[in-house]
Write a structure and sequence with these properties.
This protein has 431 residues and is of the alpha/beta class. It is built from 13 helices and 20 strands.
C-alpha cells in the first residue's frame, strides 16, 4: 500500500490500555508516511480500537463504523480491540467493515492493510485467545502531557460478569528492565506524567517472578515529575505499596480501586477476590498516610440477585467510605460470562434508578472532597486549553480551570484554589 497522500484516523473506545495501544499503532503509521487526522475528518483509512465491556460499547462501535463510511464511502475500515476478538463475525455483518483483527493480530495492522485485497468481503485475522501469550509494550505520547504506559495485559481472574479474560487472555507483562526502557522513551518524548495502565496492574511481573512493588520502586528513580497508578485491585493494593507511594515525591496521592459492590453477598456472586473489610482497610490505610489523597471506585448496580436490601446495604457502605468519586455502571449481560446464567435478574428500569442514586452520591462526595481544598494551593500540571481557559490536574487529581496564558501548558505550577464549580475548581497562579 502506497503511503502517498494516505490519511489515517483512529478512534479509541474504553480503557486507558486501549488508548496506549492506539497511540503506539498510530505512531507506526506516521513513521511510514501516513498523515494522522481526526476521526471526524475525511480519511483513507479508519481504525476503530473497540471495547466490549458493555452492550452500549457494542452499539457505539457500530455507530462509529457507519460514521466513518459516511465521511468517505471509499475508505478502508479496520476494527481492532476487544469487540474484534469476541465477536468478529458480528462485526463483519456491519456494512463498510473491511478488516477485523483479534488480540494477537492488532499490532500487525500495517502489514495486514498492505496485503488486504478489497474484494468486497471483510477479512478476519483472529487467533484463539489461548494463543494470546505475548506482551507488546506501548505508551501514549504527544496526545497530551500525561502518558499512559502499558505495563500489563490480560487477566487470570474469573469475575462472573467480565469478558476481559476472553478478549485479552491470560495475565502477562514485560520485565522490569524493559518496562523501565519504555517508560524512559515516554519521558524523552516530553511526558511530565506517566500513568501505569493494564487490565490488572497489581499482577505485574508474576510471569517473570518479579512484582509490582519492585517495579514502582525502580520507576521512582526515573527523571519524571509525576507517576499515577490507573487502577488496582483492592486485594493487590498492599500496605507496602501504599506506604511507598506516600513516601515518594513522584507517585501522586491518587488511587482508583474497583469496589463493584458494597455487599459481601454480591461480591461473592461476582467472584471478586475480597470482601468489604479488605476494601475498608485499603481506604483507611491510604488516608492514614496520605490524608489529601483522591480515591475513586468502580461500582456495578443491578447485578443478578441484587435485592433492594443488598443495594441499600451497598449505598450505606459507600456513603461511609472516605472516597472522592465513583464510576457507576449498570450491569450489562455479556455473552459467555457466568453471570448471565444467574437467577433473579434485575430489570433495566431498576438498574437505571440505582445508577442515578449512586451518581448523585458520587457528586456529593466529589463536592465534599473539593470543598476541603478551597483556599489552599496545590501543584497543577496544565494539560490543554478549553473555552480560553487552561485545564490541568492537581497532584491529588482535582480538575483545575485557570485564566492564564497557553504557554503554561505542560508545566507544573502552584495554583490557589478559590471556587468549587461542581466537577471543576477555578484557580489562579500562586506567585
Amino acid at each position: 500500500m502506497s503511503t502517498q497522500y494516505k490519511r489515517v484516523a483512529f478512534h479509541t473506545m474504553g480503557c486507558k490500555l486501549n488508548f496506549s495501544e492506539s497511540s503506539m499503532i498510530s505512531r507506526e503509521f506516521v513513521n511510514q508516511g501516513f498523515e494522522k487526522v481526526d476521526y471526524k475528518d475525511k480519511a483513507d483509512i479508519y481504525v476503530l480500537n473497540s471495547c466490549s465491556v458493555t452492550e452500549n460499547a457494542d452499539r457505539e462501535a457500530r455507530k462509529l463504523i457507519r460514521q466513518a463510511k459516511r465521511k468517505n464511502p471509499n475508505a478502508t475500515v479496520a476494527i481492532i480491540g476487544c469487540y474484534a476478538q469476541l465477536n468478529p463475525n458480528e462485526i463483519t455483518q456491519i456494512e463498510g467493515v473491511d478488516l477485523v483483527l483479534g488480540a494477537e493480530n492488532k499490532f500487525n495492522l500495517l502489514n495486514e492493510l498492505d496485503q488486504l485485497n478489497l474484494n468486497g468481503k471483510p477479512k478476519i485475522v483472529r487467533s484463539p485467545i489461548t494463543h494470546a501469550n505475548s506482551f507488546m509494550p506501548s505508551y501514549s505520547s504527544k496526545e497530551r502531557t500525561r502518558s499512559y504506559l502499558k505495563i500489563q495485559d490480560g487477566c487470570d481472574y474469573t469475575c462472573s460478569f467480565c469478558t476481559i479474560p476472553l478478549a485479552r487472555g491470560k495475565s502477562r507483562s514485560d520485565t522490569i528492565d524493559n518496562t523501565l526502557r519504555i517508560a524512559s522513551q515516554a519521558i524523552e518524548n516530553g511526558s511530565r506524567e506517566i500513568v501505569l495502565t493494564g487490565v490488572n496492574v497489581g499482577d505485574f511481573g508474576k510471569n517473570h517472578k518479579e512484582s509490582f512493588i519492585a517495579l514502582i520502586k525502580q520507576l521512582d528513580d526515573l527523571p519524571i515529575d509525576r507517576i499515577r497508578i490507573s487502577s488496582i485491585e483492592p486485594n493487590l493494593l498492599t500496605d507496602e505499596i501504599i506506604k511507598f507511594c506516600a513516601s515518594s515525591e513522584k507517585f501522586m496521592p491518587h488511587f482508583h480501586i474497583p469496589l463493584q459492590s458494597g455487599s459481601d453477598k454480591i461480591l461473592s456472586l461476582m467472584r471478586r477476590r475480597y470482601k468489604r473489610n479488605q476494601f475498608q482497610h485499603c481506604i483507611a490505610t491510604i488516608k492514614k498516610y496520605m490524608p489529601d489523597a483522591a480515591i475513586g471506585a468502580d461500582v456495578i448496580v443491578g447485578f443478578p440477585g441484587e435485592s433492594d436490601n443488598d443495594f441499600i446495604e451497598s449505598v450505606h457502605f459507600i456513603d461511609e467510605l472516605d472516597i472522592s468519586y465513583l464510576h457507576v455502571f449498570s450491569y450489562s449481560e455479556r455473552p459467555s460470562t457466568d453471570a448471565i446464567n444467574l437467577d433473579k435478574s434485575v430489570d433495566k428500569k431498576t438498574r437505571s434508578r440505582r445508577s442515578a442514586m449512586l451518581r448523585d452520591l458520587s457528586q456529593k462526595k466529589l463536592s465534599k472532597f473539593y470543598d476541603q481544598f478551597i483556599g489552599s494551593s496545590r501543584p497543577v500540571l496544565f494539560e490543554n486549553i478549553k473555552n480560553g481557559k487552561l485545564l490541568g490536574h492537581t497532584d491529588n487529581y482535582i480538575l483545575i480551570s485557570a485564566d492564564i496564558d497557553s504557554s503554561y501548558i505542560n508545566s507544573i505550577n502552584n495554583v490557589k484554589l478559590y471556587k468549587n464549580n461542581g466537577n471543576i475548581i477555578y484557580g489562579e497562579l500562586n506567585i
